[in-house]
Amino acid sequence: MKRAAIFIAAFVMGAVSGGGLEAATPPKPSAEQPINVSSDRFVADLNGKTGTFVGNVVVTQGDIKMRANQVRITSVNGKADKVTATGNVVVDSPASGTATGDVGVYSVGPRTVLMSGNVVLKRAKDVMRGAQLTVNLATGQAALAGPRGTPGAPQGRVQGVFSPTQDQSQTQSQSPGAGR
User: Fold this and answer.
1) Distance between start and end Cα atoms, the chain
2) What CATH number was assigned to the domain covering residues 2-24+34-163?
């Protein structure tokens, strides 16, 4: 359980800081860096105050990259309010790993991220799976929930697989008496 909490915390902190946790001078936080979006096409709904990027969407901010089939941005008072990514959502960060899911929603004001639908977090050989990931980028708090079962059935469980920091073959060759 402690390793799972550290894994999620490292993922969150990598997303908050944009990486470089070990650097002597931290880089400019990702939230202050420009956001670049590219896609096959763009559709605006002036009445609905939305813009939708469709097809092979790639969103980058600092060293964080998100890919999705579609990204819709909703604005309030001329400013981005909510970013909703759907279809094969993948978020990569060199500092924290990769998160995948079916849907990702970033609420700009409160700085919260909600990923849902077959959520998988990967960092090196460590993997966690669940149905819904909630991250508060302002506080650094995160929660991964399991899938909901059929009505009346208990909620599913979160799964995690964590690898030791050293390879078993290295540990055996470094231990006293190895190879005797």
Assistant:
1) 37
2) 2.60.450.10
Asked if 108 and 80 count as a contact pair (C-beta separation under 8 A), the reply is: yes
Q: Please give the Cα distance from 25 to 8 (Å, whole number).
A: 24
Q: Which residue has the tokens 């008496």?
A: 177
Tens of pLDDT along 80-100? Answer: 889 899 999 998 888 778 899
pTM of the model: 0.71
Residues contacting 23, CB < 8 A, separation 6+: none
**Neighbouring-strand partners of residue 158:** none
Residue-wise pLDDT for 6-58, tens only, equals: 444 444 434 433 333 233 333 444 667 788 899 999 999 988 889 999 999 99
From CA 89, how far away is CA 117, in angstroms rounded?
Answer: 10
Q: Which DSSP letter does residue 24 get?
A: S
